[in-house]
Amino acid sequence: MTDLGPVTWPPAPIRTERLVLREPEARDRAAVIELFASPEVGSFVGGPRPRAEIERAMPGAPGRRPGRFVVDLDGAMIGEVTLTRDTERLRPAAAGKVDLGYLFLPRAWGHGYAAEACAAVLGWFAGALPGEPVVLHTQTANVRSMRLAAKLGFTEVERFHAWDAEQWLGIRLPGTRNAGQAVEPGPGGM
Ligand SMILES: CC(C)(COP(=O)(O)OP(=O)(O)OC[C@H]1O[C@@H](n2cnc3c(N)ncnc32)[C@H](O)[C@@H]1OP(=O)(O)O)[C@@H](O)C(=O)NCCC(=O)NCCS
Predict the structure, then answer these.
(1) CA angle 135-65-148, nearest 5°?
(2) Its Gene Ontology molecular function terms (predicted)?
(3) Mutation test of ligand 1: which of 40, 122, 145, 172 has the most ligand atoms closer than 8 Å to its C-beta?
(4) pTM metric for this prediction
């Protein structure tokens, strides 16, 4: 039993048309540091962290945990997609549910990689724990993230104010299709 629930972890790497979703490895360390230190990436998620602080906190390989997928394009990490069981959120509608998160390096934005990776992760999750909804938090000012959430089939539960910004809580019910997709992908990829 993992924090996510009774899922087998890690799954075999998930292959999509252009990407591989897999556990973090030591060779991803530089890209993970770049991701968390990037001012653009941090704009709507609490701001970038000082590079030295990230390096100190991650002396070796990036941490592995159930639900943390590195997104690999041609052998190099371009971002990460996470599923985290929500145990701390203050919003009752999200409590206890699995929350989707996504962070991509700015040079990988605008190619549909985040949508492709998230759809595959949601497909894996639907196969691993059928019948469970997934929630998503994002700032409403995060236009790219709001567009991605809609594309993935999340619908609004509520907007609320926290961390000095308007926040959006969305939910994706079991059986939801991604925009433009005929059927929910099965476990193991699209
Ligand atoms: C949120 C985030 C992941 C969105 O990334 P993104 O690249 O815009 O998202 P998508 O993968 O859906 O790509 C969509 C874009 O790719 C374009 N695109 C190009 N080729 C494409 C293809 N083959 N297939 C699909 N879309 C394609 C789309 O037209 C769209 O472009 P547009 O935004 O100019 O309209 C990214 O901005 C990010 O990492 N932000 C920082 C972290 C963050 O804020 N996370 C949210 C908190 S959970």
Answers:
(1) 35
(2) acyltransferase activity, transferring groups other than amino-acyl groups
(3) 145
(4) 0.94
